Amino acid sequence: MADFGDILMDFDAKSQKEKNLEKLKQDVKSLKRKRDAMLDREIKIRDDLNSGTVQNASVYRLPVAVLPPQNLSQRQVLPSDAEVQRLRNIAKTKQKLQAHALCHGVTSLREDNETKFIFDPYVGGKPFGPFVLRLRFIRTQAVLRGHTLPHAVPTRSLYTEYFEDAEDHSEQLAPFIRSVAKHLRAFLSRKQQCDQLRERFAEDIRDFQAANHCTAVSFSLCLKDEDNQEHITVSIAMIYDRDEERPKPKSLKVTFDPPHIEEDDIESVKEQCLVFYNMRLTEAVIEAF
Description:
By secondary structure, the protein is of the alpha+beta class. Helix content is 45%, strand content 21%. The strands form three sheets. Strands 1-2-5-6 form a four-stranded antiparallel sheet. The chain has a four-stranded antiparallel sheet with strand order 7-8-9-10, covered by helices on one side. Strands 3-4 form a two-stranded antiparallel ribbon. The relative contact order is 0.06.
């Protein structure tokens, strides 16, 4: 006959085994619920991304029922007010940097003891780049290590202008990067305008020139006088600053061939050509003529 103590031990072992089995079953059910919830969230996130209707992050949180219970016995150390304020400032700074990157197309990263500034400007709705400028910071000095910017951007001249006489280069870094970005965007915009103008009016434009990185632009348009059916050639020339997308004030020159045209007509055309100061080249030609 079995000993009573052995019977109790076997019963306890069997009970413990049943408890462990029941716990495993509950864990499996919980994991299945969590898996289903994560699959539903993944499908919702994917659908929203594809449809362009991404919502607030709180919408995609997992249900509380599938999250692991917090162990209340473990005391959590809450951050201090100063730490919360620091985290808030970091978040605001990150938002500003993201906004700056989206608006100006400039981002930066640190790699191989160098800081790389990456320029990805959008001009006329089209992306350009990436163009990279590499700086190495030694104490308070910024050393230009190289770049892939176009020759139209006077990178080394700008570096000398902003850093040559500066004791603390950190104060001149932001103005330098802004100036480089402005020169880059201006050149890309001028070149794009010239290419679009030549493509749009390929049969009407003659003697098109865009010298010195598209800072000296000139071309001629063949027009027809509606009164006497006489053909008139209007020559237009303008000068740009290297960091501007529109011509310099008072740089626009308009001449006519033949030159024997009524003064009122000349003044009228010149008045119409003032749109070149405020519009892109193709739109200005359409507006003026």
